[in-house]
Amino acid sequence: MYEIGRIYEFESAHFLPKYEGKCKRMHGHNYKVMLKLRSEILQPPFGICSVMDAKPIQNSQMNMVLDFHLIDEIVKPILDQLDHQILNEVGIKYPTAERIAQYIYTELKYNKDSSKTLPYLHSVQIWENEWSYAEYSGA
Fold it and tell me: CATH number of 2-136: 3.40.50.300, 3.30.1330.130, 3.30.479.10, 3.40.640.10?
């Protein structure tokens, strides 16, 4: 089994209205997102292509789980929707780190537009700071 990872960052605010403590009030984080992809093969299956220009995968991209550039094309639009937003207002119910990880995973794994799904996605980690993270890997 091969595993690759990619790290992204975004900044957002949120609040946890039912929480007893500081997090009940609006506050922000510089979130770090770690995506892990797993595959038993190094050649992407036929049909995966560049999201931006719909070109077939070139031979130079063989012997990879998935080219990092292609991963970026799929992930960036999802994270752009969260960047500099109040997460309570963008469709994440009760935006704990666990729920944010689940939201990103679901958007990348099960998007209605199949060209915006991320093949081989195994898990999403969300880091609120350098000491604390939550991870979601689906069912």
Answer: 3.30.479.10
